[in-house]
Amino acid sequence: MRKKKFINMRVLGKYIGLFSLLLILSACSSKEDLTDYIELKYYGIDTRGTASYVIDEEAIVKNIFDIDVNSVEPGSISSETIAEVNDLSKSFEINLDKKENLSNGDKITVTVTVDPEMTKRLKEKSERVFEVSGLPEGTKITAADLEKNVIVTFKGANGKGIVSNIDKTFESDLSFLNFEVENDGELKNGEQAKISLTQETIERLNDSDFILDGDGSFTVEITGLINYAQSANEITNLDDIKRMLSEGINRKYKNSSEQYSWGRVYEINLEGIFYRQFEKKVDEGFSWQSNLGDSNGNLVGVYSVKEFSGGTEGKLNKKFTIVYGFSNLVLDENNKVNLTELIEISKGYDDTYSLESVLKLMEGYNYMEFK
After folding, report:
1. Which residue positions does the secretion signal occupy (predicted)?
2. How large is the C-alpha radius of gyration of the chain?
């Protein structure tokens, strides 16, 4: 009869104890993958999203050190453990290969690098791929939207027009939109004015929930600018204005009490008639009627004037040059000027100015002589 073989329980116990110890040591030496504790957060809108990461620090401390940070009691953790937790928190670098201009469906690779000198608890190298999701679509702004919701008005002279107001009627919060106008100050009726968002506004839109579709410009027809004749000969009732010019200068320098020595007698000579379509800003000094430079549609005469005393002696008191005429010669559809809307203008020059100097000044103010 064969003898049964019995297992030496003492030896088996030693093997079991050794195996358990190896399992325990293996468990203690296992390293956590930090990417398992990383979550990506997405901000902005689709195609212009941004990403950042957050780390579940509570879970790391719980799983590695078996510490519940929400219920830990003061003084229950050793200083060595606290130091190890602090070292672990400083031991890693996290890199995202994409952070900006993200679209839903994009892939982001997160790479973790750990300094093994600071902690043995984390894997030295780990990597994880995340897919972007949840970014809302932005609100598009098209050229048609701009044209519909931006109201442009014009003012000034036809050919020298400017934009006077740009009003916005958007329902959404787009009050920050600012615009610039191409050729502002040179606008003409019937042409198209190009209105564009400023570069600063475009950059601000790129940081918002709005998406600009196009270059941010639109056009609008220019209307409402005042018509002034390019030359005086275009004015159909020019003779009426010339007559008013002659009557006005004679009223301004009308003889008075000429039979007495203290009276005044004037000798007026017309040296030329001049017209200018557009204003030219100049510094003429203070005078309530010295607007020869800063008005449109001006027709003036240059006159040499001598003032004599009255009576039989007729002594020359003074001589001077006067520029006298009208501004605001606005044309209607028939190139006719409304005489009731003329504005009287004048500027006097004493005898320190020669006639030639005054005529040169007129040229400098952009006046052209006509017959």
Report:
1. 1-29
2. 45
Q: How far is residue 134 from each of residues 47, 95, 104, 117, 250, measured CA to CA in Å?
A: 12, 22, 7, 39, 84
Of 254, 253, 321, 250, the C-alpha closest to 292 is: 321
In the sheet where 368-370 sits, what is the strand order?
A: 343-349, 316-327, 298-309, 264-276, 368-370
Instruction: At 248, list the tokens.
Output: 């006005």
Q: What residue type is assigned to position 356 of the chain?
A: E
Length of the chain: 371
Whole-number Å distance between alpha carbons of 309 and 267: 11
The answer to whether the beta carbons of residues 166 and 150 sit under 8 Å apart is yes
- Tell me the two tokens of residue 78: 């050793």
The predicted model scores a pTM of 0.68
Indicate the residue type of 156.
G
User: What is the CB-side half-sphere exposure of residue 352 using CA atoms within 13 A?
Assistant: 0
Report the distance separating Cα 58 and Cα 40, nearest Å: 17
Q: What is the domain partition of the chain in residue ranges?
A: 31-131, 139-221, 232-370
pLDDT-derived band at 25, boundaries 50, 70, 90: very low
Give the Cα separation of 11 and 28 in Å (integer).
26
